[in-house]
Design goal:
The chain is of the alpha/beta class. It has 15 helices and 16 strands. It folds into two domains: 82 residues, Urease, subunit C, domain 1 (Roll), CATH 2.30.40; 290 residues, TIM Barrel (Alpha-Beta Barrel), CATH 3.20.20.140. The strands form three sheets. Strands 4, 5, 6, 7, 8, 9, 10, 11 and 12 form a nine-stranded parallel sheet that branches. The N and C termini lie far apart (49 Å).
Length: 424
């Protein structure tokens, strides 16, 4: 997944420390290794980048399905979230990290409360992540008032500064849940520290109507009016866009993360992904949270985004497998401001690598590896995962996490969730 889309048959990769030190068709005889992985019959590729999720919401998986987004949020998710604490988020994030590693994701961008616990869980899992505290106009069970939210975000930035795996973003939930003051202050903090600003934008028609009623503008028009658009913006969803909104995104070089399965499940709509890519925008791929997907499998998400664009445009060529795999690797990393570190197998980049075992009936025969990865493979086909040079999964056994303990703790938290909702 380098700029030349190089494919090496019978290739070898050498890792030194946390970095890719050699790539070639034959192993350099001068190299030696303390550990050798035989990946014969497999595809070696960069670890997948989940560009948008809410990791701790694994604990809300299946909680409230088959209802509209606003009812889902106000009737179930927001009431449940009002009770959560740091341990709840840490447990849910560990569960998410286990699921992501097992399905080939090595990097994720997360927005949630108690974000320091998400960062700790990612660090414990040895996953690469871009993490931030969700900021809203209403009080948070974590930080309370928004002023405390700004302080919490700045402490996060300082705490995790220069960490090899964890990066921090400023994360304002959306234009309809954040006042102009919140958005402008969040933007100023992001600019001050040189970090991304992550925000949900143009996800639903209800959102568009609400912003129009409040401010007389469209979402990106409103953000441009506030002076907060720029290449530091990571805009999630971007479903409902007209020509003028797309022109603003292009003008300000906004990064986009599309979440097709979540948008389908909540009937939010279909993002114009093919057009955004054709217009030169950087578009990555995300699963969203497990309460609205209901899984974190990026291989399944690739299949979904490709087919959804084809049926939306009634064109089987609308979004090809190569482009989709780029969205889940190099383009996703670039959108999350991590493209210099990960997203491709290149000398000097961090060793974030997965191995997909193709010696299976549904992956045999193989004429085209891109096609197989996008349309045939699933998370269970990933056999090994290496992140930042560390082997974190070997033959589908997690090496950095105690899965049985995580599953036990997750079930305990589910009992609490049922109790919380029974009081509504």
């Amino acid at each position: 997944m380098d700029p030349h889309l190089t494919v090496i048959e019978n290739g070898s990769i050498a890792i030194k420390g946390d970095t890719i030190a050699y790539i070639g068709s034959d192993m350099n005889p001068s190299l030696s290794a303390s550990k050798i992985i035989d990946a014969n019959g497999s595809i070696i590729l960069p670890g997948l980048v989940n560009g948008h999720t809410h990791a701790a919401m694994t604990l809300f998986r299946g909680l409230a399905d088959d209802i509209p987004l606003m009812e889902w949020l106000s009737g179930y998710i927001f009431p449940a979230e009002s009770h959560i604490d740091a341990d709840f988020v840490h447990t849910g994030s560990l569960l998410a990290c286990a699921e992501m590693i097992l399905s080939g994701t090595t990097t994720f961008c997360d927005m949630y409360m108690f974000a320091d616990e998400v960062a700790k869980a990612a660090k414990q899992s040895s996953m690469r992540s871009l993490v931030g505290e969700g900021l809203y106009d209403f009080p948070s069970p974590n930080y309370g008032s928004i002023e405390k939210g700004f302080e919490y975000t700045e402490r996060l930035i300082q705490k995790w500064k220069n960490d090899p795996l964890i990066s921090i973003a400023v994360e304002a939930h959306s234009p309809y849940t954040c006042s102009p003051y919140l958005l402008k202050t969040g933007h100023a903090i992001a600019q001050k520290h040189g970090v991304p600003l992550v925000i949900h934008v143009a996800e639903t028609l209800t959102e568009l109507a609400e912003i129009q009623a409040k401010y007389g503008k469209k979402p990106f028009e409103f953000m441009e009016f506030l002076g907060i658009l720029g290449p530091h913006i990571i805009a999630d969803h971007c479903v409902h866009l007209d020509d003028s909104e797309i022109e603003r995104m292009i003008r300000h070089r906004v990064n986009v993360i599309t979440n097709p399965a979540s948008n389908m499940k909540l009937a939010s709509g279909i993002a114009p992904v093919t057009r955004l890519i054709a217009d030169g925008l950087t578009v990555g791929l995300g699963t969203d949270g497990c309460a609205s997907n209901n899984n974190l499998d990026m291989l399944l998400e690739m299949d979904t985004v490709a087919k959804l664009q084809k049926i939306a445009l009634m064109d089987p060529t609308a979004l090809d497998a190569v482009t989709v795999l780029k969205m889940a690797t190099c383009e996703g990393a670039k959108a999350c401001a991590l493209g210099d570190l990960t997203g491709s197998l290149e000398l000097g980049k961090k060793a974030d690598i997965i191995i997909v075992d193709t010696r299976k009936p549904h992956l045999t025969p193989m004429y085209n590896p891109y096609s197989h990865l996008v349309y045939s493979a699933g998370g269970a086909d990933v056999s090994h995962s290496i992140i930042n040079g560390r082997l974190v999964m070997e033959y589908r056994r997690l090496l950095t996490l105690d899965l049985e303990d995580i599953l036990f703790r997750a079930k305990e938290k589910a009992v609490l969730v049922k109790q919380w909702l029974s009081r509504i």
